[in-house]
Specification:
Layout: H1 2-30, E1 46-47, H2 53-56, E2 75-80, H3 85-100, E3 106-111, H4 116-121, E4 129-133, E5 140-143, H5 149-161
Parallel strand pairs: 1-3, 2-3
Antiparallel strand pairs: 2-4, 4-5
Length: about 160
């Protein structure tokens, strides 16, 4: 009788431990990327938040009436959501472009579900939306994924972001 009781306690303890480990692994797997923007982290797609905006992109408090880009390099901002199928297709392309144009452009990503105010500031109504930030001039956008997205994006980068005047 005592051995059966010990067996039950052992089984329950092992089961609880298994569930706890499973929960921890699941939470870590689902947690968003923490690739915070930094001046040296140019080979990765970097997470952009509203608090990063004034320093890295646009100080909307200092310049409420006109666009003044604060970045040191041209940039692309990928507005996406984790549940969006087309966003999942464009994500590896953005990573590849960030690596290819390392040191020449900065690639950011913004989750529209967690950064609603930031998405609203850029007028995002559909995802994926890419916002291009040239060093001179105003930002412009492209929406959606097309059959030849990677080549299209490379052409936009070379023709619009990497032009020198």
């Amino acid at each position: 009788m005592k051995s059966k009781n010990i067996y039950n306690k052992f089984f329950i303890s092992a089961f609880i431990l298994f569930i706890a480990v499973l929960c921890i692994v699941t939470i870590q797997a689902k947690s968003p990327s923490t690739d915070k923007p930094s001046k040296n982290n140019t080979e990765k797609v970097q997470v952009l938040t509203l608090s990063d905006m004034p320093e890295l992109i646009y100080d909307y408090k200092k310049n409420p009436d006109k666009w003044v880009y604060e970045g040191k390099k041209p940039a692309i901002i990928d507005f996406y959501a984790d549940w969006c199928g087309p966003c999942k297709k464009i994500s590896p392309i953005m990573s590849k472009l960030a690596k290819k144009y390392q040191g020449k452009i900065v690639v950011y990503k913004v989750n529209v579900d967690t950064e609603k105010e930031l998405a609203a500031m850029f007028g995002i109504r559909s995802i994926p939306t890419l916002v291009y930030l040239p060093m001179q001039g105003k930002p412009f956008q492209s929406v959606g994924v097309m059959p030849d997205t990677e080549n299209h994006l490379e052409k936009l980068i070379t023709d619009s972001l990497l032009v020198t005047k």
